[in-house]
Amino acid sequence: MNLSREQLATAVRALCADFGHDYWQRADEARAYPHEFVDALTDAGYLACLIPGEYGGMGLGMREACVILEEINRSGGNAAACHAQMYTMGTLLRHGSEEQKRRYLPGIALGELCLQAFAVTEPDAWSDTTRIRTFAERRGDRYVVNGQKVFISRVRQSDLMILLARTTPIDEVEKRTAGLSVFIVEMRDAGDAMRVNPIETMINHESCEVFFDGLEVPAENRIGDEGRGFRYIMSGMNAERILLASESIGDGMYFVDRASDYASAREVFGRRIGENQGVQFPIADAYMDVCAAAAVRDEAAREYDDGETRGEGPNMAKYLASRAAWKAANVAMDTFGGWGMASEYGIERKFREARLYMVAPVANNLVLSHVATHVLGMPRSF
What we know:
Number of strands: 10
Largest sheet: 4 strands, mixed
Shape: globular
CATH topology of the largest domain: Butyryl-CoA Dehydrogenase, subunit A, domain 3
Order of helices and strands: HHHHHHHEEEEEEEEHEEHHHH
Radius of gyration: 21 Å
Low-confidence stretches: none
Strand content: 15-25%
CATH superfamily of the largest domain: Butyryl-CoA Dehydrogenase, subunit A, domain 3
Number of helices: 12
CATH class of the largest domain: Mainly Alpha
Distance between the termini: 47 Å
CATH architecture of the largest domain: Up-down Bundle
Number of domains: 3
């Protein structure tokens, strides 16, 4: 598909116009998954934007994927309901076998299969991925998986899961990053070997605990070589950080748009509140921060499309975008005053959603540590 970024943004914006504030507010209040919205994105081909045309996808790049998610959030929606179908492609497309791609990608592109679950995080390891305990033991032509994952989103809406597990105990490897392997789990066949418990959170995010008890996964569902999964999963994580930065940028622009419109119309003491520097300057300041984060995101997306594998750009984009969005969220709340707390305006819902990316999928303090250690060459702080 040959679309400019402006044309793509306009098309996504038009789709989102059919799912306005009332739609998202009802979903939030009911803690409901936005099936209708996700189905519309799927039918339009946007969730398959990174899948090559030979497998039925749009054959676009990371930069175009960023446009899609940014516009969803700028419209007042929440792309977290479906973003994993994009960033899991970082692992499957770059490291999956040709047989795996032909087996799964056409169904994903058509919407017949849903790949939304990305199972890495564990309750004892948290951000130290090398310390995960979920173990996949090789038994003949299959692996048997036992363990637990936590804060795994959209498990109940997915047919497939990308799973990271240990295949060699950590005390038997020379490097902590060795001995990890990645699998495609067909969850419809899991039965009682996989148990899912929803986690109630401050936002409508469909996050779950997942328990594996003797889950059998065919060896042919392992992605790449056994023991090299950490490198493979990083492709997905780098894509995730760039795409989630785009959602934060969309959130930031949502808040700036709403705040500037409200400040230009709202009159108090016989004058529009936007005429006051104390109101307009913070909005302008927040806008510039969002634009700066977008520039870093754009560069990270370009490098990713060019084959760059370093985490520097994706992590910095996620950090800067999440901070800019949270700053804009607070500015919007200040601008709206008491009405910002009222659900009918949508600010409080987006305010809650924007806070998530300060701590997930990686805490911003860990991004600081990554940049200090791996970019600036300083000693580890922990």
